[in-house]
Design goal:
heterotrimer, A alpha/beta (371), B alpha/beta (374), C alpha/beta (587), B: 374 residues, alpha/beta, 14 helices, 5 strands, elongated, C: alpha/beta, 6-stranded mixed sheet, 19 helices, globular
């Protein structure tokens, strides 16, 4: 009873300390909302309006038809047409266009004669991912054109055709992939900032000593200090979740229970790591630096933007201690794949272990790290 | 020596000594870039390799075997054979494979007769970008196999329009070649801002500012005195990063090293100016640190064009990216490393950086007053 | 034309806005200091001393009024003023990660001292401050007194025409304080410097040529120190009682109408009256105590207190509701705190070495020493906040580091700096500590009522505690430490940075607590506060130099030249004896 009473009092005090100050209230509310909106739209691999230049030396109808197919697609936008060779390099070099389509003077003639006509494509490879995606879009337009042409001209098509069906994200929208990830990303940043300074700040202000001479046990301090991070994380996570579903219209197909269990374990592990950093730090500056050194790799190596499976093996092992990694799988699994508890068990237990270990270390450090 | 020069030199010497005595600034400038660049240079990659792929062959024969072999020979895939589509789907749900290739029992018959044999392909679309890239790889394998199959049958494969792509600057389409220069920009934004975000706030907190202020030093002199040592430190970290890009990650440097150094120096001033401004405004290390985290890392990561294409973002977001200094530096770096000395890009973006530098340093200078109540 | 004053303020006002409250720090202040003299700026906490200094240095702009320093308009030409005056802020900005020499170099560069003049000036300053052997040491590794002397040296690296010193002697041991004063006077003598110096030590006022008395943003008076104390003649007395403890006597005298101040001074109580002559004492006090009243030489402090408390009829603040539970314990060996051969190392540096003492129930026990003497380290080990490297510590029969949380429930702790939650209101802080000590709802309500009333915090109940005036912060900290009615109270430098008025009030409360049986362990560097303790130890360099009652300590240094040594004299004597003993040992 006493224990509960004390924990409750500490939790209330922590919340008040965070929420009473205008600056820290703002840091909890302003940037996350702004970042959700901006990143929700900005973080996309989908290409729209790729600037294209066409260098058509052929005047025939078929070449014009192919060009019309390309410029008619929402992915491409014709910026300029080219008249001579010398224009190609500057356009690409100066990033005015991402790709140049060049049709030779005999293009239509060859096509009509039933020969293979070559369409040359020059792509700016500075961003190789964009280059590959743009090439992919263009390739499927050309494939469609070929099938249509063959049918119209009684040519024999390829003997086997690919029927590609993406599952879970039928239109391959990057946003469906990125926005659920932002739930994890932003709650991680906020919980870490809230907890990583909570002990360091009290140490610097001298109030931690005041706390340690009360009858509160380290476990009680630990629970009391975890509470605000958990609560703020849960509220913010829920808010972003609602935004994802109703604003960004990402389908939520799986069990909310499975999602919230994941969120709870994730926040617990983030709070644990935050408190651990905080109890290791002697000054707030060290706390900030620690939070930073945890956040940056967490975001970059979590699979938020680039898949973990592409990483070299030793880096893949490193990612095992990043809680965000597991939570991202849960988020995307529940949102898009409709996962339930049983398919996500392998994501739950590593987070539970990280939470337990980090909280235990933090609690131990409360009393053992002094001066 | 003039008194002003003496004062600036005095400040520079003091800041330098403090840097030397405080291992954390040196760690931020030299250890952080190395660790982050190593971690991310290896860790961040968009090139899928060895994608686990379920291959379901309902009725094996020579034709299906040649198609499966085509997948097996590709570097991109690691095919696993399944007998039924149900088993393959279970593996797919358990995330053991990221795609399924499904050859139904009538595949060979239709291949040889009507010639429109379907190859069922299911990819996991959750990560849309990876799904598209995987699709591209599958198409590549398919085309290679088609050509081989036609040749074996002694018929000519009729392709009305054949695409002949030439990818400039990065023919091997290694994502690392564009990610590493981008990472340098992100890391340097962090480091530049972190280095200075705390330095003015620290003087306020330790009470040293009040004593400095009553000396005859002018604000401009104080700003210069603080910038110079951190600038040199930051440039050291920058050169280290460039060296790592060249020799550790084998990214080619096609442009001029001096242009790179000059642009980097400009960018370093912008980042330091941003940190200084944060520091002057915040006046305490706690708030300065929080602001530095929030306004540098994620915006530089997401809005700089380092990984997400700016031209594909909605208009209003594109406008926002103009105030992210890393955006200009990423453009310069990717061009200088991969394309060469393309002056319109380098000069245009440098001009933008120059303006930002003036704005940040000018604001820091204005907000920084020799007054306690301002 | 008459020579202009070194510093002239003409109806200067300055208001600050903090947390929605606007505070008038200076309210139409006029003053003029004389060139070539040391002017003292005296006033309680919050009187506006620091604001005045900063205005004079051009770091703040007044809302209205004119300020001229050395004949230059400070508001219009701050840079020009800054190149001719020297200012040492309260916390002087030494770079602790730079060496003594590097700090000097920096300020020489900033002040534009020519290279060829430096060597001579450095040598002079280092000789004067006694820092010559330490020029290569990092400033952070210097003792408190040495840091302060280095700060002064940096300010003096280019001899300024006007020197502003904001509380230069706070937290400095008595020996260093004497040295600082010598340096200041030497500058006045040799360079003809004008000095404005603020201080919280009232005994220092008497060392100034002239004193300006400030209170609540107003100038109350200006003149030679004697011009303040002279009118007090006939209002200062010493009272001693053969049959009554000095603390009891002080408490009861404080309540007598017509007595504005009653403080313990040695074994007697010093009394300042509202009007000339001793007022009629209540019959039972005179009978019980067998009082002996003698007239005393008036001091500046008497005048200071009398001026500030002019409108108050008795000396006692409303110290209500503190009396409590047990009766004071009897004699015998009833040690509540026992320390034997206590040791604390940081690396190979001994912060505390071979410290032993014990504290009886109901005692006020003092740990006295300069900054860095090892008081706070000892103290933190006693509270279980710092692991012990060697030796034994028992508090209430238990080792606090290992003892259950129940044991911690029996002690109260008040840290050196204000260490409650600054963002929370007074009420929220009290409520939190009540819960942290496990008080139930009824008890919590009772104790909060008690705290608000007893410490006069009711008006501030809903203000953020960080915005409170210093004296109120200290009251709140004490109230929070007493919420659970502890048996033992730990107070670490409770009066540092607190003005003389608040210090008096604080000690009255402590007395009342001790009378009711609470054991109090207190550290302090104010030597005169030692007289409030029943027993004390004096520490230096991590070791105990002496243990005993204040009277015993002073008796050791009684001599023909010093018939009535003060605690400060005793302290300096002990330190000197310790030094010579050590030199003899190393020789």
């Amino acid at each position: 009873m006493n224990t509960l009473h004390r924990i409750f009092a500490l939790a209330i005090k922590e919340l008040l300390a965070i929420l009473r100050e205008k600056k820290s209230r703002f840091i909890l509310i302003g940037p996350p909302i702004a970042q959700l909106i901006v990143f929700g739209y900005a973080a996309t691999f989908d290409l729209n309006n790729i600037p294209v230049a066409v260098y058509n030396e052929d005047r025939g109808a078929p070449s014009r038809e192919l060009v019309a197919h390309i410029t008619g697609s929402p992915h491409f936008q014709l910026v300029t047409t080219i008249e001579h060779d010398g224009q190609v390099a500057p356009l690409i070099d100066n990033r005015e266009v991402l790709l140049v389509l060049r049709l030779g003077p005999r293009f239509s003639e060859e096509l009509k004669r039933g020969q293979s006509a070559t369409a040359q494509l020059i792509i700016d490879g500075r961003n190789s991912n964009t280059a590959l995606l743009a090439l992919g879009y263009l390739r499927s337009i050309v494939t469609d054109f070929n099938i249509e042409w063959s049918r119209q001209h009684g040519l024999r098509g390829p003997p086997a055709l690919l029927e590609i069906r993406p599952w879970y994200n039928e239109n391959l929208l990057s946003r469906w992939f990125v926005v659920p990830g932002i739930v994890g990303l932003l709650t991680l940043v906020v919980t870490t900032i809230v907890t990583a300074l909570s002990v360091a700040r009290e140490r610097e202000a001298g109030t931690f000593d005041q706390l340690l001479v009360t009858p509160m046990r380290p476990v009680e301090i630990l629970i009391g200090k975890s509470f605000p991070g958990l609560l703020i994380g849960l509220i913010q996570g829920t808010f972003i979740l609602l935004m994802a579903v109703y604003w960004f219209e990402v389908p939520l197909r799986g069990s909310l229970g499975a999602l919230y269990l994941g969120m709870f374990l994730f926040l617990l592990s983030a709070v644990g790591i935050g408190l651990m950093i905080s109890s290791l730090a002697v000054t707030q500056q060290q706390g900030i630096l620690g939070a930073f050194l945890f956040l940056v790799p967490s975001v970059i190596l979590s699979g938020f933007a680039t898949p973990i499976s592409n990483m070299p093996e030793f880096v893949q092992y490193l990612t095992c201690v990043i809680p965000l990694r597991y939570f991202l799988v849960i988020l995307r699994g529940v949102f898009l794949e409709g996962d339930s508890f049983s398919l996500l068990v392998d994501q739950y237990w590593p987070m539970a272990i990280i939470a337990l270990v980090s909280l235990a270390v933090a609690g131990w450090l409360f009393r053992h790290r002094m001066n | 020596m003039k008194p002003a020069a003496r004062r600036v030199l005095g400040m520079i010497r003091k800041e330098s000594l403090q840097i030397l005595r405080d291992p954390s600034s040196i760690a931020i400038a030299f250890v952080m870039p190395v660790v982050l660049l190593l971690l991310f240079g290896y860790g961040v990659s968009l090139d899928a390799r060895h994608v686990p792929l379920a291959v379901v062959v309902e009725q094996p024969d020579a034709n299906t075997a040649s198609l499966v072999a085509a997948f097996r020979h590709s570097d991109y895939f690691e095919p696993r054979a399944f007998n039924t589509i149900q088993l393959a789907q279970q593996a797919f749900d358990r995330r053991e494979v990221s795609g399924i290739v499904w050859l139904r029992s009538d595949f060979s018959r239709r291949l040889l007769s009507s010639g429109d044999a379907p190859i069922g392909v299911i990819v996991n679309g959750v990560d849309a970008n990876q799904a598209r890239i995987t699709e591209g790889y599958i198409q590549g394998v398919w085309q290679v196999w088609l050509t081989g199959f036609a040749a074996a049958q002694g018929v000519e494969l009729q392709v009305p329009v054949a695409l002949e792509p030439r990818i400039w600057f990065n023919p091997a389409v290694r994502s690392r070649d564009f990610l590493v220069p981008g990472l340098i920009a992100v890391i340097m934004t962090l480091i530049g801002a972190m280095l200075t975000a705390m330095v003015v706030a620290r003087e306020w907190e330790r009470g040293t500012m009040e004593a400095l202020m009553v000396t005859p030093i002018r604000i401009g002199e104080m700003v210069i005195g603080k910038l110079v040592p951190y600038f040199l430190l930051g440039m050291g970290g920058m050169l280290l990063s460039v060296a790592m890009a060249l020799w550790q990650f084998d990214v080619p440097l096609r442009g001029s090293f001096w242009a790179l150094t000059a642009a980097s120096a400009l960018f370093m001033l912008v980042a330091l100016g941003m940190g200084l401004l944060i520091s002057v405004v915040a006046k305490n290390q706690f708030v300065a640190g929080q602001i530095a985290i929030i306004i540098t890392f994620l915006p530089a990561f997401i809005l700089s064009g380092f990984i997400f294409q700016i031209s594909s973002m909605p208009e209003p977001i594109q406008l926002i990216t103009h105030i992210i200094p890393a955006r200009y530096y990423v453009a310069i770096l990717q061009t200088l490393f991969l394309a060469g000395n393309i002056w319109p890009i380098i000069l245009g973006n440098s001009a933008a950086l120059f303006v930002m530098m003036l704005v940040f340093l000018g604001l820091a200078r204005r907000k920084f007053q020799k007054r306690l109540d301002a | 034309m008459a020579p202009p004053g070194a510093l002239v303020f003409e109806s200067v006002s300055k208001t600050f806005v903090a947390g929605g409250l606007s505070v008038k720090a200076l309210d139409g202040v006029d003053l003029e200091t004389q060139p070539g003299k040391v002017t003292g700026l005296i006033g309680p906490d919050g009187a506006g001393k620091t604001t005045l200094m900063r205005l004079a240095a051009g770091l703040l702009v007044p809302d209205s009024g004119q300020i001229h320093a050395l004949g230059i308009d400070v508001v219009a030409q701050p840079l020009q003023v800054q190149s001719s005056l020297g200012y040492m802020p309260q916390r002087f900005g030494l770079y602790e990660d730079l060496s003594v020499q590097e700090n000097l170099d920096l300020y020489a560069d900033l002040q534009g001292v020519a290279t060829n003049e430096r060597a001579a000036r450095y040598a002079e300053l280092m000789h004067m401050t006694g820092l010559a052997p330490f020029t290569r040491r990092l400033a952070g590794r210097l003792s408190g007194g040495m840091k302060q002397k280095l700060g002064l040296a940096c300010t003096l690296v280019r001899p300024p025409a006007l020197l502003l010193l904001d509380e230069p002697t706070v937290g400095v041991d008595p020996v260093s304080r004497r040295e600082l004063w010598e340096i200041v006077y030497r500058q006045v003598r040799d360079e003809g410097m004008s000095v404005l110096l603020s201080t919280a030590y009232l005994d220092e006022a008497e060392r100034c040529d002239e004193v300006i008395l400030m209170h609540r943003g107003k100038r109350l008076g200006q003149g030679a120190p004697a011009s303040f104390s002279e009118p007090m003649r006939g209002r200062s007395f010493r009272v001693s009682a053969a049959a009554m403890g000095k603390r009891t006597l002080q408490g009861r005298l404080s309540a007598v109408p017509g007595i504005v101040d009653a403080v313990i001074e040695g074994e007697q109580v010093r009394v300042v009256t509202a009007r000339e002559g001793m007022p009629e004492l209540p019959g039972e006090l005179a009978d019980d105590g067998q009082l002996e009243v003698t007239a005393a030489e008036p001091s500046f402090e008497d005048a200071f207190i009398a001026t500030l408390k002019g409108d108050q009829e008795t000396a006692a603040p409303a110290v209500t509701g503190i009396a409590r539970q047990q009766s004071p314990a009897g004699g015998g060996d009833d040690a509540v705190i026992r320390v034997r051969d206590l040791e604390r190392r940081f690396g190979d540096f001994y912060a505390v070495k071979g410290v032993s003492f014990s504290v009886q129930r109901g005692e006020i026990f003092g740990l006295l020493g300069a900054n860095g003497a090892g008081k706070s380290t000892t103290f933190r080990m006693l509270c279980g906040l710092l692991p012990v490297s060697g030796g034994e510590v028992q508090v209430a029969g238990l080792d606090l580091r290992r003892a259950a949380s129940r044991a911690r429930g029996r002690l109260g702790y008040m840290a050196q700096r204000f260490s409650l939650y600054a963002d929370l209101t007074v009420l929220q802080n009290l409520r939190f500590f009540a819960s942290a000590y496990g008080l139930d709802r009824n008890r919590t309500r009772q104790r909060i009522d008690w705290a608000l009333a007893g410490f006069e915090l009711t008006d501030y109940a809903n203000s953020a505690s960080g915005d409170l005036p210093m004296g109120y912060k200290q009251r709140l900290a004490m109230a929070a430490a007493l919420m659970h009615e502890p048996d033992i109270l730990f107070l670490d430098e409770p009066t540092s940075g607190v003005d003389p008025l608040a210090r008096r009030e604080f000690w009255l409360r402590i007395d009342a607590l001790a009378e009711s049986g609470v054991t109090v362990l207190v550290t302090t560097h104010f030597m005169d506060e030692a007289d409030y303790c029943d027993r004390l130890v004096i520490m230096a360099e991590g070791e105990v130099l002496a243990e005993g009652t204040p009277a015993e300590m002073k008796a050791r240094f009684r001599s023909a030249q010093m018939p009535d040594p003060s605690m400060e004299d005793a302290f300096i004597g002990l330190i000197e004896a310790h030094e010579s003993q050590r030199q003899a040992k190393s020789a």
